[in-house]
């Protein structure tokens, strides 16, 4: 069986959009929980390892190398929580890591059935209350609007909470929300595409005001940069983390005008993105990273078009950046390295993962310290 993401043009897996002006800042009294920014200290990173039970052995085997590389890059600085489908998969993964000489002392295995690998979207969202206590938010996940199997993955946050003895906040009946659909700057601003949040295939009838009240209460944000997005161009209905991210609280990392147009972002939306302001109405600084110079070709010969480097992941000691055996790999990693001088940028070959609809950020989920 083919992964449904393989049936979509990989270059579309970003956030095509029409952008409205940011909404007024909500009062801080609306906040109950706050989501720590990704670059803050981690206890660990969660990975859902590819398996054969949904899309077959070939699918699994084509992705193993990327997961081995991510684990190897992460273990020097933090715990790596690997979710294996079953005991047989755990043994197989252990053998792969041992063969690759990846130390296992910082690796923790959990046995949970999963539908796929997208831990950013279905995994737990770790937040803190006003006393600093860590909690897990279990948002609803329905396979990006019931486009793919989701039952196993939707259960992951509650299983992690039970195993770790962390209180879970059950939001399944409140909102369907994938982690890749929202970006936060750590200082009270959220950036998202309406098409992947205010979509009847996720949250029928929900208004923008209702969504803002929910995000304020549960993520600690009161300023919103809403992008219209475009439903139906890819399975996610336009997640933002493929083309625009908060590199830090004062900086948005994205692409130049020409590359955003290639990524099918309308010109008007590009202009509005470049004019984005933070909670204090101060404009963000911008860092621009090119697309790949050439079309990306998988290890098995599939041409994917040009790819983005924006979907990277910040860990304690390193920044994991997707690379594609392309001349611009060095350009992109160099730009990103200058943003994080205290961390080591490590390129992760994402050619085969990109064919399935995502890159490094899509398959990682941080657990704050």
The number of distinct β-strands equals 17
How many helices in DSSP terms? Answer: 11
CATH topology: L-arginine/glycine Amidinotransferase, Chain A
Q: What sequence of helices (H) and strands (E) makes up the elements?
A: EEHEHEHEEHHHEEEHEEEHHEEEHEHE
**CATH H-level homologous superfamily name:** L-arginine/glycine Amidinotransferase, Chain A
Unreliable stretches (pLDDT < 50, length at least 5) are 4-23
**CATH architecture title:** 5-stranded Propeller
Strand order within the widest beta sheet: 1-5-6-7
> What is the typical, i.e. mean, pLDDT?
92
Q: How many structural domains?
A: 1
Morphology: globular
Query: What is the CATH first-level class name?
Result: Alpha Beta
Indicate the structural class. alpha/beta
Please give the alpha-carbon distance between the first and last residues.
Answer: 39 Å
Based on CA atoms alone, the radius of gyration comes out at 19 Å
Largest sheet: 4 strands, mixed
Topology, element by element:
Blueprint: E1 33-34, E2 42-48, H1 57-74, E3 79-84, H2 87-99, E4 107-111, H3 119-122, E5 125-129, E6 134-140, H4 143-146, H5 151-154, H6 156-164, E7 168-176, E8 182-184, E9 189-193, H7 208-219, E10 223-227, E11 245-248, E12 251-254, H8 257-262, H9 267-274, E13 285-288, E14 313-314, E15 318-323, H10 328-339, E16 344-349, H11 351-355, E17 365-368
Parallel strand pairs: 2-3, 3-4, 6-7, 9-10, 12-13, 15-16
Antiparallel strand pairs: 1-5, 2-17, 5-6, 8-9, 11-12, 14-15
What does it look like?
- This protein is α/β, with parallel strands linked by helices and 369 residues long.
- The protein has helices at residues 57-74, 87-99, 119-122, 143-146, 151-154, 156-164, 208-219, 257-262, 267-274, 328-339, 351-355, and strands at 33-34, 42-48, 79-84, 107-111, 125-129, 134-140, 168-176, 182-184, 189-193, 223-227, 245-248, 251-254, 285-288, 313-314, 318-323, 344-349, 365-368.
- The chain has a four-stranded mixed beta sheet, with helices on both faces. Strands 4-3-2-17 form a four-stranded mixed beta sheet. Strands 8-9-10 form a three-stranded mixed beta sheet, with no helix packed on it.
- The chain is globular.
- Residues 4-23 have low confidence and may be disordered.
């Amino acid at each position: 069986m083919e992964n449904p993401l393989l049936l979509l043009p990989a270059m579309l897996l970003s956030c095509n959009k029409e952008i409205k002006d940011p909404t007024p800042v909500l009062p801080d009294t609306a906040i109950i929980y706050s989501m720590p920014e990704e670059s803050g200290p981690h206890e660990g990173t969660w990975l859902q390892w590819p398996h054969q039970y949904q899309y077959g052995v070939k699918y699994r085997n084509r992705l193993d190398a990327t997961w081995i590389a991510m684990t190897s890059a992460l273990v020097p600085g933090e715990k790596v929580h690997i979710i294996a489908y079953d005991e047989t998969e755990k043994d197989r993964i252990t053998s792969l890591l041992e063969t690759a000489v990846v130390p296992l002392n910082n690796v923790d295995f959990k046995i949970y059935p999963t539908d796929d690998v997208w831990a950013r979207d279905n995994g737990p969202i770790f937040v803190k209350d006003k006393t600093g206590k860590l909690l897990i938010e279990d948002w609803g996940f329905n396979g990006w609007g019931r486009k793919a199997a989701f039952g196993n993955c939707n259960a992951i946050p509650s299983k992690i909470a039970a195993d770790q003895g962390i209180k879970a906040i059950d939001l399944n009946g409140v909102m369907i929300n994938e982690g890749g659909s929202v970006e936060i700057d750590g200082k009270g601003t959220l950036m998202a595409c309406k098409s992947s949040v205010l979509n009847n295939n996720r949250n029928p009838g929900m208004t923008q005001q209702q969504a803002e009240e929910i995000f304020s209460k549960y993520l600690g944000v009161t300023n919103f940069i809403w992008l219209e997005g475009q439903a139906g161009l890819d399975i996610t209905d336009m997640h933002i983390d493929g083309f625009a991210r908060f590199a830090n609280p004062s900086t948005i990392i994205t692409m130049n005008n020409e590359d955003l147009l290639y990524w099918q972002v309308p010109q008007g939306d590009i202009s509005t993105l470049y004019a984005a302001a933070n909670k204090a109405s101060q404009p963000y600084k911008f860092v621009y990273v090119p697309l790949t110079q050439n079309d990306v070709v998988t290890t098995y010969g599939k041409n994917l078009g040009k790819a983005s480097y924006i979907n990277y992941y910040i860990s304690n000691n390193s920044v994991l950046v997707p690379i594609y055996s392309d001349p611009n790999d060095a350009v992109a990693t160099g730009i990103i390295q200058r943003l994080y001088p205290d961390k080591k940028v490590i390129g992760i070959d994402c050619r085969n993962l990109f064919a399935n609809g995502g890159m490094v950020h899509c398959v990682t989920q941080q657990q704050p310290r």
